[in-house]
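Sequence in, structure out. First:
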Amino acid sequence: MVYLNLTKMEKQNVYRDLLMLYIKDNYQVKNNESITTHQAIDIENKIGMFLKTQLGSRGKPIYTMWYSAYYGCQHKELNEQVYDDIKTDKSITSDYLMRLARPFDLDNSTVLYKTEEDILDEQYNKAKEVFEERYFKCSDNYVKVCDNSLSPFNKSSFCTIHEDLYYDESNQHLFLPRWLKDPTKRCYDRIDFLPNGNESGVFNTWDIVRKEDHVLTALADTKDLHELVLKVCGNEHENYEYFMKYLAHLIQFPERKPEVCIFFTSAQGSGKDTLINLIKLLIGEACVAFENDPDRIFGKFNMSSRQNKLVVCLQEADNIKSYSGKIKDLITCQQTTLEQKNVRSFSIKDYTRLFILSNNENIIKIEPDDRRFVVFKSWNFRFAPDPEFFKRVYKCMEDPNCVQTFLEELRNIPVDKDYNFQQHRPQTEIYQNLKELNTPAIIKWAYTLIDIETDKMSTNNLCDSYNDYCNMTYESSTRVSPKSFGHSLRKYFYINNNWTGFEKQRSNQSRSFIIKKEALKSIIENIYNYTEEL
């Protein structure tokens, strides 16, 4: 029943009911709190003001009845005199009487009557429910949920966007000022990406990107998808088995990083992009970032390429050796900071797996002690064309049953959550070649010492020999100082507080090294995997 729609007589009865049925017995409230004398006098005055303003002389019997019941005072003339002395006050409305009654309404009967304030509250709560389907507050940021991603705003921008939003039908009450002050508004302590479950006080972005399974109506033949994986992995079964286990781990344990980067290199048209598109179908497009600009991945403003991603693919990459440190960090980091212009940055857990695709080979820096890179040289279809193969692959990828069947096969591949993908990497020929191409000059130079006649050289002579080698092989035209040379030599040959391949000697006149040729050859070939053999 809407209070505003009642007749005057009905309203008069409501006033009497509120006062006599719900405000009685010295105001025994629902929470059993008592009312102070000062509060009681204030209530007495406001009730009198309200009744006199709304009903005039018709309010006197109601006031007298209530006054007598409340104070236990049966002096009718005195009670009427009190009423006559009260002044009117139009600022006190029926909403006040309703608010006054409801805390003492043990039977919740007042819910039958809707005041203007009740109607506004209902309109606000409806607007709030709709608004909070897309917006929430987190720390100092205000965040919009945009389908599969988040768009954060600072307070100023957020208020500007919603400054003309009203919550009532007459467009007289602004929504945002009330929402900002609302202690029950949708609010989180932090934002995170948690594929393995929710945490209290955390907005879990996994909930907005996770892909729902297709309902499998019939098992499909997935041999062409398996053939695609085999070809992209170089048509080598060892590589295929490793990568299938890698995909299985991605599907079964998205919250575990394998801590390796998969680098696919080949001529054009080998199926590299098609494989990544298949991964999109398996885990959802929202969980995969396809980028051809390294700065969008490794740069400062990385929100679009790192937010909610399980796979980041650097496509058609050129020489990215200058990003070596950032690439290594992405491969193994467990936490990342997301940044967007004019918005406070925030950190989330990082479960990103990095893929690099390129038609060129020597674009990444593989160091002598590398443990992070897996390199596959994909099948070259230019020399073994098979146009019908890709037609079959695309047909499979367009069939939801086929993709779901392949997904179920991956779920059934045995793989441990903590499987060591670094330790079990295939040492492919292309990987070894790239590792040798990226071998530091000082290791290549040290390998030449194995064939020289002398077994002992001074530090200065070793430094000169190194500079001559770099100049002759075009490794560098800039000569290094003996001090800089010494730092480089220690980096690769001073291991666990001991020289390996060299023995340092000191005398009053000079410092020199004895070259331990067998040990030097062993560490370079077996540890740093470098040899000059073709």
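Second:
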Amino acid sequence: MRRLWPWALAAALAAVAVTVLVAVIAPGPGGEAAPDPEPPSTEAPPPEGAAPAPDTPVPAPDTPAPAPDMPAPAPGVTSVAPPVPPSVRTVRDFGAVGDAAADDTAAFQKAVDAGVGDIVLPRGRYRLTRPVVIDLNRVGPTAVWGTGTATLVMAGPGPALRFIGTHEGTAAPRTVKPNVWERQRSPAAVGFEIVGAHADACGIEAAGTMQLTLDRLTIRKTLHAVHLVKRNRNVIVTACHLYENRGVGLFLDDVDLHQINVTGSHISYNGGGGIVVRAGNVRNLQVTGCDIEGNMDADGPPTANVLLDSTGGKGGSGEVAIVGCTLQHANSAPGSANVRIIGRDAGGVVRGNILIADNVLSDVQVNVQIAKARGVSIVGNTFWKGFAHNLLVEDTQGLVVGPNLFDRAPSYQGGETSANAILLRRCADATLTGLHVTDVRGGPAGVVLQDCWRCNLSGLTILDCDGPGLLLRNVSDSRVSGCLIRRGDAPKDWAPVVVVGGEGNTVQPDLFPPLPPPSPLPAAPPPLPAVDGQGDGG
């Protein structure tokens, strides 16, 4: 019985609830629901003979007054932008003008130093002449935000906004000091534009922060759009447009940074690179669902749409995923690449654990270049218009190149002149499987392995290349199997596979027999019967 009593209690409570509900909604004498009883009045009745008090006007529902500095809605339009809550002060309350002429730097700094937390930007063009410093430990948690209508014009050197924290730990909660959680957590910049108006103007700089979020920003015509320095942890960059800056779009500049997610952003036409990591100690970088293009100056040093260069860094770059992006342009820039990864750090340690998956890459000198790295997976991508190479991997160990499409795309301008070569040089412990390679021009072969060791090539489809389909030069202890290698206009001396030097290799000789004579096409099958009246004209 003791086990059943909770169920009995629940049933009793349910019965009581139903009884109360029925009593509340039961119809009154006229068939309508009984009205709620009015509570007794607490007001004293007016003196006898006194005039009744006028009715207090009640605002009409669903017609909020426009927020300060927001235009009134047009007839028939409920609102034009999310209103600023009346309790929140904006930068105009601290003296900002927003006319693009007045210097609003002091007003912005005053708003930050007041410790109000929400630095709200109504519509306007706010001219700054020096960085607005957000010292989080002093002013407390701070977010600078707008609704997309405000512009900061940075008319002086340095970043428009400089976030400064004191976090010295890792991403592990036990290393975060109480003052960081209480005073510094989750700084943010959301929903406005920064435009550079000085040769050394930058967008946003951050050092020592924990959980920085940058969301729905447009940053253009600066030196570097987003500049992360010294040490940061747990950064999110989402839905941003980092566009037409002279330097780098997102610059991880010799920074110690673990956990950074870059999602759903346009990072384009930045002269010094799109996403660039130089030296430092970077882990857990995820780039997902972005359009990254044209981030190289034809007159500048070689760079890439995504460049991870561990040279000179204490820990280099590792644990990186570049997934589901479009990366392209510009082949006219010398040494241009869509993805370039250099894995060896200052101590000579080779870094890696890198995934490049499900991207579309085109129109550069080298689509993907990997050097001095380890633990690299390249799978599910579509390559074309690699004017020198679609894929170039050197001095790398532990490489998996899974199913990828290496195409030419002749319908695109320049598609007929790109080489699209695939070259592995001085690599070890590599697996190449499921590659579909088409129409490599001008090189020694469609796929070339040179001075490599312990490589397994299987299930490759290599078609219509100028030279042999596959060239193994000084390759040892490797295996080739299950491949289809063909050339439609092959001369009599054409060889699908060429092996030069090396030892201990297995190349199955029955993989590349002569093409059989074409057989006649089978007769066309009869048309399917119509179903539910849906025939050929359905």
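Remark: The longest helix spans residues 5-25.
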